[in-house]
Design a protein that fits this description.
GO terms for molecular function: carboxy-lyase activity; pyridoxal phosphate binding; transaminase activity. The protein is built from 14 helices and eleven strands. By secondary structure, the chain is an alpha/beta fold. A hairpin with a 2-residue loop joins β10 and β11. Bound molecules: pyridoxal-5'-phosphate. The site of pyridoxal-5'-phosphate (PLP) has 13 residues, from α6. Pyridoxal-5'-phosphate binds next to α6.
């Protein structure tokens, strides 16, 4: 490495530390508009090179005002983790090591670490030790992998080889999915040729849980291959489907149960919460993320399949230039679509090693308590309605209980805008059962009680200003 390349590293290290140290004081969202960022960052394709430390300096200076505060302590708008520093450190090394992690021979180090991490994850999530895991970019791709295994398996069971012959002329598969499933699942269905509209949507209750009676009714008229997609942790309410009852019904019909547990599956790593997920361990596949509750840096997801053969059937292939590894050793590319890819096992290893079983459980439990603390603060304010029971780390809230629904949507939007402008915490709008809401999610390792209290003050102040504005306008009008 040249002196200048080394200087680029030193620059990157100093900038990274300064960014990290500023996380509690910087605004929790980007401050520049698209035009402003473009203005700073745009240049025509460079003809000549530039010195490495200068490249790093320019990049960091140019993007700074466009960075969101996901890695900070008061970012509550999305269900995403906070890129824990130790995971980032492991990820830096991952890049420096430059391992091609598709195969054992491409990186024995990665293959062995992934194999260890598979055991750790199944242990932490209390899932059967026979399951296989593929390391993906996130829960969307993990869902894709799991549903590919599901699709091939339910067709193979009736004598159709979808992996060889595709879906042309194949018997139809019945796919049932809760009405409040995450949009990413519908995308995965689309990629697999199962269609995002060619599904039976099952009615949900007011927390977004699949209604067992509605599922039973849908299954009465359904014979043939069946996949049922359930949810551990609804994106707005954090609710869990009633797995025990669903598992019994679906397995009676010979169906495959897939679980979207992008964040909520991690409730299983916490002794005080695991009962919320009872029965989910009897499913056939699970998709979850590392970059949410486990706090790995982006990107990292896990595709978990009970029947490892079904998993490999859907993903593995052979090529003459990819000599098979030994019997005992797991081939990373047999469990995901990619061959050349990042070694995601290293950051996962580092996070689990840093926090340990007890640290992971304590963090998850703390996030749920902090979510409840915020919901209690907001819920005790006049004119604020928490729309779900806070079982996990998530809730949705509407401001302005009086008046027609459009009015509540308006004041909720106005309150969110004020909170964003105040710049203490970051929240955003979502829709829940036809209502515009503010979603609040506590899921970053960096969030402490004082962050919740400061944020509650800010949100309540914003709501008071908005509601005072509305009463004044009303008085003027009358
Ligand atoms: C985040 C999320 C997804 C999508 O996961 P990615 O990691 O963004 O691909 C799917 N389902 C739920 C419930 C989620 O929270």
């Amino acid at each position: 490495m040249s002196d200048e390349q080394r200087a680029a590293f030193e620059e990157a290290y100093a900038l990274a530390m300064a960014f990290h140290d500023s996380r509690t004081t910087r605004r929790p969202a980007a401050t520049a508009s698209f035009d402003e960022l473009w203005e700073v960052l745009y240049a025509p394709t460079p003809d000549d090179g530039m010195s490495p430390p200068e490249v790093i300096r320019q990049l960091a200076a140019g993007v700074d005002a466009g960075l969101m505060g996901e890695a900070g302590p008061r970012f509550f708008a999305k269900v995403i983790g906070g890129s824990h520093p130790v995971g980032v450190a492991a990820d830096w090394l991952t890049s420096m090591w430059g391992q091609n992690s598709g195969s054992y021979l491409g990186s024995p180090a990665n293959a062995v670490v992934e194999q260890i991490v598979v055991e750790w994850l199944l242990d932490l999530l209390s899932l059967p030790a026979c399951c296989s895991i593929g390391f993906t970019t996130g829960a969307t791709m993990a869902t894709f992998v799991c549903l590919a295994a599901a699709r091939s398996t339910v067709l193979r069971q009736i004598g159709w080889n979808a992996d060889a012959d595709g879906l042309f002329g194949a018997p139809p598969i019945n796919v049932c999915i809760g009405d409040d499933a995450h949009a990413a699942i519908f995308a995965a269905l689309r990629y697999l040729g199962l269609g995002h509209d060619r599904v039976t949507r099952i009615a949900t209750d007011d927390a977004g849980r699949m209604q067992v009676a509605a599922l039973s009714r849908a299954l009465v008229s359904c014979d043939g291959p069946l996949i049922v997609i359930v949810q551990a942790g609804q994106i707005n309410t954090g609710a869990f489907d009633p797995f025990r009852e669903i598992v019994d019904i679906v397995h009676l019909h010979g169906g495959w149960i897939h679980v979207d547990g992008a964040f909520g599956l991690w409730a299983r790593a916490c002794p005080s919460l695991i009962q919320l997920t009872a029965g989910v361990e009897q499913a056939d596949s699970w998709a979850t993320d590392g970059h949410k509750w486990l706090q790995t840096p982006y990107d990292c997801g896990y595709a978990i399949v009970r029947d490892a053969d079904a998993h490999r059937h859907a993903m593995a292939y052979e090529a003459s230039y990819l000599p098979a590894a030994g019997e005992e050793c797991r081939e990373p590319f047999h469990y995901v679509p990619e061959l050349s890819r990042r070694a995601r096992g290293f950051a996962t290893w580092a996070l689990i090693r840093t926090l340990g079983r007890s640290g992971i459980a304590a963090m998850i439990e703390r996030h749920c308590l902090l979510a409840r603390r915020m919901a209690d603060r907001l819920g005790s304010e006049a004119g604020v309605e928490i729309l779900n029971q806070v079982e996990l780390n998530q809730f949705v809230v509407q401001f302005g209980m009086e008046g027609p629904p459009e009015r509540r949507d308006q004041v909720t939007r106005a309150t969110i805008k004020r909170v964003q402008a105040a710049g203490i915490c970051y929240v955003a709008e979502a829709t829940w059962h036809g209502r515009l809401v503010m979603r609040f999610s506590v899921i970053s390792w960096a969030t402490a009680e004082e962050d919740i209290d400061r944020s509650a003050d800010s949100i309540i102040a914003a709501w008071r200003e908005v509601s005072a504005g509305y009463s004044e306008a009303n008085e003027r009008a009358s």
